Amino acid sequence: MAKYLVIVESPAKVKTIKKFLGANYEVAASNGHVRDLPKSQLGIDVEHDYEPKYITIRGKGDILANLRKEVKKAEKIYLATDPDREGEAISWHLMAALKLEGKKVYRITFNEITKNAVKESLKNAREINMNLVDAQQARRVLDRMVGYRISPLLWAKIKRGLSAGRVQSVALRLICDREEEINAFIPEEYWSLDVNLKIEGEKKPITAKYYGTEEGRQSITSKEQADAVMASLEGAQYRVTEVKKGERMKKAPLPFTTSTLQQEASKVLNFSTQKTMRLAQQLYEGVDIKGEGTVGLITYLRTDSTRVSEEAELQAADFIKSRYGEEYQSEKSAEKKTGQKIQDAHEAIRPTDINRLPALVKDELPRDLFRLYQLIWKRFTASRMSGARYETTSVKIQATEHIFTLSASRLLFDGFMSVYMQEEDKEEENSLAKELDKDSRLEYLSFDPRQHFTQPPAHYTEASLVKTLEELGIGRPSTYAPTITTILARRYVVKENKNLYVTELGEVVNNMMKEAFPSIVDVNFTANMEALLDGVEEGTVKWKTIVSNFYPDLEEAVKNAEKELEEVTIEDEVSDEVCELCGRHMVIKYGPHGRFLACPGFPECRNTKPYFEKIGVACPKCGGDIVLKKTKKGRKYYGCINNPECDFMVWQKPSGEKCPKCGDMLLEKGNKLVCMNEQCGYVTGKIPVEKQ
């Protein structure tokens, strides 16, 4: 009969770990958390030192009953929940729920589900780390306070079913701020000027880019300037004045952290953060491999460390040496230096065995699982390899006082790129067909002038939002995916072609949060809170100190907002649309997807129709009203009311004024008017105050 009980979080791990440990061990799963704060109330005793009131999660009674039976039979109990704050807290809750005080209870953690790692963890059993538990409790309590105190205000002010969150509200603000930047961006014109030249004795021409004059770099900002440069070069002789040769090294990438895995899987595989985490969880917990049974293919997936264990380092070195050759072996493995605390001294995300090549498990894995494993395997292998080496050539070509430049590079040694290439590594090799020197004779063929416009900042994607959250120190590896999932589920933000756009609802929620709770949506405040939570984990800050400092300010802000909200009565706005069924003037109401028109005669008359806000500007194509509309996903745009007969649409608000330069309509961008015809590029000064 089994003498020892090992409790893990996920049932998927049970079979694998049981196989590693043998007959003396029973392995059971808690299925995640077993206790939490109650859903029906705040669940924090504000009057008595902010003590949390934990209750058994509904539906976990049977699981706990079975675990209690196993506990009675066991001499020793090992709590083997995940190796992070959340896992530590689950172990602590299991201690309470299963009444394990006074019994032989040990906490064990392993970073990968392999025989060695699991057996090693038993040798290093320890007590529950209360600093880790308290860091998780602090986060949970802070998130509960924000959610349960602010969400009812959103219901009262906007509509039921909305939510506020400590990290989600900051993520929403970042997206809203970026949207404002994009809307206010005024494109500036600039030109590039290339010259095509023939080298004597060569068929293939070369192309050099305009640099400036002997005095230094010069930018070309208009067609007139480009024409003037070309005119001044008529009949000029082109000669090589300088050739510089050099070598450039491209360093191997770092192995994946949670954040970089989510970013790369989004870019390369087109996976959402949620999908990446779900698949990575499967790879970590174990997959059935023919001849081996259930095997954990990767190490723990929630980490912000790029550290790699010595054992994995040695295994990788042997593998690379035997498969690729000694010159491909990295002299010294790179590690990310960061001012932030590395969470729980985890390792980077890597394959549990580098010798388990993606090709060997391809037939055993579903397509997406295979693609993610392959990405992780390639990235880790590449991170242990030497850098790529390029030969670089840069050439200066002069004609009169004008200078053109030409740069070329040739790959000398591919290094890590033989295994793994990112988008930025896929640069074209543009080595010169013939080596140039000062004696090279050049013949002018043609100019290639091109007009460009500066581009606004890019819309956030899931990948770039995760990157920004990480850089700003907001959230932790386990929070990125749920944060993005929540703001999408609440329809504060929609996703179109990977880009994240704010909806009207998202704007309303963000504006209210900024007005009533500026510190909650303040980036620095939230990042500082993360640093304090790290302090709790390190044992330098008491968790209740953070909570007791935070709650009174939150409570005061909520009370102030409640008073101000009492003064705001949201009446149904009467429109000039007449109900065709009963003749009453229809009113504007708010629904889950924004505003709509409804008959005030409800329930006798149930007529509703879409509401289009007229902006008082006529369509330049058909003369109909231009109205504010929304895409199916909730993104705002301006279109003709006569759609589909008339297809006029723009993303910026039309001003009703015509461009004095080309006659097209002027659009409002920030506080300026810009011609809708990009080729025209006309921009006015500030919009008059009365028009804003």
Task: Give a verbal description of the structure.
The record marks 33, 139-140, 143, 148, 155, 302, 490 as: Interaction with DNA. GO terms for molecular function: DNA binding; DNA topoisomerase type I (single strand cut, ATP-independent) activity; zinc ion binding. Belongs to the type IA topoisomerase family. Residues 129-558 form the Topo IA-type catalytic domain. It catalyses: ATP-independent breakage of single-stranded DNA, followed by passage and rejoining. The protein is an alpha+beta fold and 692 residues long. The chain folds into 5 domains: 4-128, Rossmann fold (3-Layer(aba) Sandwich); 147-185 and 459-567, Topoisomerase I, domain 2; 189-251 and 388-453, Topoisomerase I, domain 3; 258-383, Topoisomerase I, domain 4 (Orthogonal Bundle), CATH 1.10.290.10; 572-611, no CATH class. Helices cover 35% and strands 24% of the residues. Strands 9, 10, 11, 12, 15, 16 and 17 form a 7-stranded antiparallel sheet that branches. It has a 4-stranded parallel sheet with strand order 2-1-7-8, sandwiched between helices. α5 runs antiparallel to α16 (523-538) and α6 (166-184) packs across α15. The longest helix is centred in the first third of the chain and has 28 residues, at 130-157. The radius of gyration is 32 Å and the shape is flat. The termini are far apart. Mean pLDDT is 89; it is low at 336-344.
